[in-house]
Design brief:
2 strands; two-stranded antiparallel ribbon
């Protein structure tokens, strides 16, 4: 079977959307954590020189950035091993990079802005 005739495994297709699934999870958890934290006054609790809410949001953000970093390394390893068609794995790697940039951009406001108004 030639390279062009090879069937793309479903696992490779999942790599195409995995980065933005992690990004959307980060967005939902950050938005939900901010809403709950403001409602319960976690912004007024001080831990390590900053609010407990800010620390919690930073933790959520960093976990998602780390997950995207791992996903990027995994998609590059799949591409280099040649286990899937080159176009799919190259596109998956590029989409994961874009999702990582979007997640970093989303979280940059955490340390810079007022959390609860």
């Amino acid at each position: 079977m030639t390279q062009a005739a090879r069937i793309t495994p479903p696992r490779a297709l999942l790599l195409l959307v995995a980065g933005f699934v992690v990004w959307s999870s980060a967005f939902v958890w950050l938005y939900g954590g901010l809403s709950v934290g403001c409602a319960f006054g976690w912004d007024r609790i001080t831990l390590a020189g900053t609010s407990a809410l800010r620390l919690g949001l930073l933790l959520i953000w960093l976990v998602h950035v780390a997950a995207l970093g791992w996903l990027l390394a995994y998609s590059r390893a799949v591409r280099q091993a040649g286990r899937s068609p080159p176009f799919v794995t190259t596109a998956a790697t590029a989409l994961t990079v874009v999702a990582l940039i979007a997640t970093v951009w989303t979280g940059l406001a955490i340390p810079a802005t007022t959390l609860c108004i």
